[in-house]
Write a structure and sequence with these properties.
There is one protein chain. The chain is of the alpha+beta class. It folds into two domains: 4-103, Double Stranded RNA Binding Domain, CATH 3.30.160; 115-146. Helices cover 42% and strands 19% of the residues. The protein has helices at residues 54-64, 84-103, 116-145; strands spanning 4-8, 11-14, 18-23, 39-45, 73-78. β1 (4-8) and β2 form a beta hairpin. α1 crosses α2. The N and C termini lie far apart (91 Å).
């Protein structure tokens, strides 16, 4: 059943690069829960993949966060459904969604400066606050003298 997983019309992922491990799922499941391994652990080596451009795989590792091992392997665990196949499809769907997010390059931050009016307003606010605190301070010192 090895094939190609379409990420975008121009980019596809070879299914042979995905490693699946099936483990027993936690939680409720009736009498079947202790017999069938329905939970799926999908592993995808993002740092050594030939399917993705280098910058996309770097963004994928950054986006995946805690789901990445020290070796750069993205690990997705799917246990939402009660069947192995449904969990497998869910894990693939989640990986594809993550890769699609990594395809979008981040916007470059353009350094800006506050306008002259904004700077002047900030200074007048500071002076106003200082004056309020000054009146409080003088009142406190008068109360202590009495």
């Amino acid at each position: 059943m090895s094939g190609v997983i379409e990420i975008t019309p121009t980019l596809a992922l070879d299914e042979r690069e995905l490693v699946f491990r099936f483990v027993q799922s936690e939680g409720p499941g009736g009498q079947n829960v202790n017999k069938v391994a329905t939970s799926v652990e999908l592993r995808f080596d993002a740092t050594h993949t030939s399917s993705l451009p280098a910058e996309v795989s770097q963004r994928l590792v950054r986006l995946a966060g805690k789901r990445v091992t020290e070796q750069g392997v993205v690990v997705i665990t799917a246990r939402r459904y009660r069947t192995q196949d449904a969990n497998r499809q869910d894990a693939i769907r989640r990986l594809v969604k993550l890769i699609q997010q990594a395809l979008v390059p981040p916007n470059q931050r353009r350094a800006t400066r506050p306008s002259g009016a904004a700077r002047a307003e900030r200074l007048t606010d500071k002076k106003r606050r200082g004056a309020v605190k000054q009146t409080r301070r003088s009142r406190l010192s008068r109360d202590e003298e009495e």
